[in-house]
Amino acid sequence: MVPLSYTVDLKGLDELSARELYDLLRMRVDVFVVEQNCPYPELDGKDIDALHLRLMDGGELLGSTRILKPYGEQHPAKIGRVVVSPAHRGKRLGDALMKESVAACEKLFPENPVALSAQAHLRRFYESFGFVKTSEEYLEDGIPHIDMVRQLATRPA
Q: pTM for this structure?
């Protein structure tokens, strides 16, 4: 299937309008809390300093990720809250989200690796973007997860 056309934006929390923030949080709660039947603290305080990458079709939110800035040299940037709108699944938007998120991390934090906490059943998906497993499986909010890291892109000498 050909991916849906989309635009990408990357905003801090204070740059999102009230409606944009509402749409973002609603999609995350609809998928992670309701659909996956996983009550967890969605409002965890990390959104305040995060960057929010959104795939948009006009005013419609197709998917998003949350990018946490590295907290020091050698520490990774972190991609999380990877979510595609249920109305737009099967259109390869997960691939687009990860491609755009990794590219944003490499542009903004070129000296830092990129990490994520992956739902274990998505390991191969994240491996296709260069992430490698760095932990044993563990439960996070009742769902099996693994830690994964993507090392720095190889740079020409």
A: 0.90
